[in-house]
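Lab notebook, bench 4. The sequencing result for the construct came back, and we need a structural model before the next group meeting so we can plan mutations. Quick request posted to the team channel:

Model the 3D structure of this chain.
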Amino acid sequence: MKIEEIAKLLNCSYIKRFEVDIDSLAPIEKAQKNTLSFLSNPKYEKYLKTTKAGCIIAPKSIDPDKYKNLNLVICDDPYLAFAVLLRHFYLPKPPSPKIDKTDIIGENSSIDETAHIEEYVVIGNNVKIGKHTRIMPFVYIGDNVVIKDNCLIYPNVVIRENCVVGNNVIIHAGSVIGSDGFGYAKTQEGRHLKIPQIGNVVIEDDVEIGANVTIDRAALESTIIKKGTKIDNLVQIAHNVEIGENSIIIAQTGISGSTKIGNNVILAGQTGIAGHLKIADNTIITAKSGIGTSIKKAGIYSGIPAYDHNLWLKSSAIMPKLYEMYKKIKELSKTIEELKDAIDRKD
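Done. Here's the predicted structure in token form:
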């Protein structure tokens, strides 16, 4: 693409110093003559003096007169603009229709003629698969599952019976959707009696689920992942959980049963959330935090148990000094006792 074509696609202004045909994308420090790159983090501005990039997507705050050797496309959000271009260049086209001869397909299942079902896929009874959906090898799809249009299901995914997958959903390799919820009742003899989990999982449109994620089916109703939410690898979501729209759940997070996560929530890596809680919209939980009570007000929370992030930062700064403070308090206590003894002797 030409510089002016890129600017038009992004609806941005541009400054053209020399002619170039852009044919690839790369990081700013590794870009070559026919390569497009971007600057969104100020600490990388130093590379503008040495980069060989044919064009840079830059923020409006940059001074173009400092870099008269560069072609520039000026945008409000260079990172977002770069993502749009990546999708333009590299988003895969819909797959060609296919049902492989090695597939096992149950009774009364409906597979759209545009779907692409690869080798050794097992599909149960009464399954519905929509337009342009691609299912890769060794996927298991249980009875009564619905998978709508334009989905991408990577190898070794399991989607258990009665689950519903919306449009434009991506599920990465090894994930299990609709595994049994972890529910047991203790008998008088002390045994753990398994409670049948007869609900399902509902995944709404435009959700992406990473590799080796487990989402348990509800005991009676539905575990729900609402539209636009993105889930990283190695996340555990328990039965009857609801996750709101456009939330981000990062790796190794665990969410206990019946907890309700709001819209636009970010749960950073290794966050743990207890059961039957509510997390307010627009909340951010930082990495390795533990949530034991509901969060009713949006904000940033950290720690175990989690509390206001700014207060947590102050507390964390004090922590390395606690032992020295303890020693000083002991010394002061000893001095106070000695002064008291001295006063008592005078009396």
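The chain has a mean pLDDT of 95.
Will bring this to the meeting.
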